[in-house]
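Before drawing any conclusions, I looked closely at one protein, both as residues and as discrete backbone shape codes, quoted below without any editing:
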Amino acid sequence: MAEYLKSADSDWYRLRLIGAILCVMVAFVVLFLRLFYLQVINGEELRRLSENNCIRLQSIDPPRGLVFDRNGKLLVDNRASFDLSIILRDAKPIEDTVKKLSRYTKASSEEIQSKITRSKGTSNYKPVPLKQDIGRNVLAAIEVHKYDLPGVCIDVKPRRHYINKRSAAHLIGYLSEINPGELKSGKYPDCKQGDFIGKFGAEKAYEQYLRGQRGGRQVEVNATGQVVRILNAVDTRPGFDIYLTIDQLLQKQAEELLDGVAGAVVAMEPGTGRLLAMASSPSFDQNDFVSGMSHEKWDALISNPLKPMSNKAVQGEYPPASTFKIVTAIAGLEEGVIDEDTTIFCPGFYKFGNRVYQCWKKGGHGSVNVISALAESCDCFFYQVGQKLGVDRLAWYAKAFGLGSPTGINLDHEAPGLVPTAAWKKRHTGISWQAGETLSVAIGQGFNLVTPLQMAGLISAVGNGGDRYRPLILKKIVTSAGKVVREGETQVVGKLPASPKTLELVRKGLWEVVNGSKGTARGVRVAGIDISGKTGTAQIFSRKTDEVEREEDIAAHLKSHAWFVAYAPSDDPVIAVAVMVEHGEHGSSTAGPIARELIRTYLNNEPGSKHIVSRQ
């Protein structure tokens, strides 16, 4: 019996031992299989996650290139911006972190949470942008409480700063955050969500030079995502600096002279096409786009009837009025319709068909030739020249002057203007051209539309002897070390269809406009400077002889636009100017004085002078 019990105990212990061994073996098998899965099957992924938990790559934005005027005066630079973001992997619990951030940033929890929600699909290790340019007060609050804000990080980034608010805004342009469509377009391969790119003006035209090359660094972080040390770094390459052709002194003066009115000024070098100034009024502050614009401010901008976002110098289309008489005069002379001895009597009106076409001077100009007709802007003279030429021959010359098509300036959304022909009217209205309409076109009314930039190019070509240049806004592009990588190249894009004799006659007429005893722009004279030019008053609605003629009785929005185009000095011009003031009524009294002061400043002032002429 004792032996049996001893044998039973031995079997029981053996079974328990076997069971324990089996349990240990199963445990080891499970552990082995788990280790095999973790190290062999899923090893690469786990290694990546492990490294990301302590070692991360951080992108560093490059400083954007600076913008200068032709004389090296700084127009646009960069300032430090503190941008707030969150790394979701480290920011747990999210709800608590969001509530604290809301308290320190004065932004609602819902606003912060919505930005986190929109980032769905982004890696938990990548920073999610929450707020840009938070300011030093918010920065201080977050830095003080940073240990209570796991996963929250602040990056110092260069932010665009437009030094002279509103100045040259339409030419320089502005930056704005890249949108999803632009990201997908492939045009911005080095960009990511949250980056700012040029959206308008020179900022957009020279984006590839201004942007620079992104850098980065490899950092070690702790459990809350705070940087412990920098392991490696790749330096950024700063963007190239650009020098524009504009003169900031002249630019600022043009804007001062346009203050309070809607209109545009273009000043350029007649012999190169380089812009000296381009002003469009009213303007806007480009810094609003960089720092973040409220919906209310954006709505106010786009709903403003004066269209501050539109570059009127390039996009504004207006009837050229009497400035177009330059084209009509050259066409008439070149086609043999008139010559220097041709005289036409102006009684103050011209009868054509069953209608009477009035001259702007009720009593008439008497007998005039091409020179005096230009000087006194006689409508009757050009009515008859236009009638003999016909609309299609007039159109051919207008297009040869660069009207009716973009100039090719390196700015977006340039308007082409309109040069009407008989075929054009038939195609667009279904109505045949009427002979009387040619009379209106000959004096720059009717269907004619031009931009101030086109008219600056036209008067430049007349002043320089017939060469049409492509308008140029770029002087040069240089590296941060000062090496020139590109220079703006002048380009002749056409020649006026006018003989030297024809140009000489027309230039005499334009000189008489300012300097003659009966010239329409006698008030534009400047002592010691010979100025040649042409006035224009563009009616925006037609008035019959029995309608109200007193200008004070016409509503402000129906008053005529005022034009003046000019070049100086007359014998060897170095500056050409086109001025257009919306509803300014008379070119001689409104647009002319603006051109006069710009010419006076450019020709008489020493470089660096602070002289600014107040509007008269």
User: Anything to note?
Assistant: The longest strand covers residues 74-86. The domain at 56-244 is CATH 3.90.1310.10 (Penicillin-binding protein 2a (Domain 2)).
